[in-house]
């Protein structure tokens, strides 16, 4: 017997033998899509131009000395560097969580 134990909110536990098949059947295509939300405004980040504007307000600046395939930001007051793929369609939860960690209490990642 192999699989994944799933714990429901109501306390029921059950064994799922093929978790990938069940998750794709539940929402039609696999994992949930995520969005980056700017907490003070409640605005969902929908483009790099909107993200750049928010980051500039937080003291981040564009960094042009790195990889030309990346969209990068740095902050003079820290050693942090935010590196994002040039193509916004490749902006996924890994990059979103990087922004959240480097900007405490400013951003949140939500499922849609």
UniProtKB/TrEMBL annotation:
Biological processes per GO annotation: regulation of flower development
Entry's family note: Belongs to the FPF1 family.
Matches recorded under PANTHER family: FLOWERING-PROMOTING FACTOR 1-LIKE PROTEIN 1
Name recorded for this polypeptide: Flowering-promoting factor 1-like protein 2
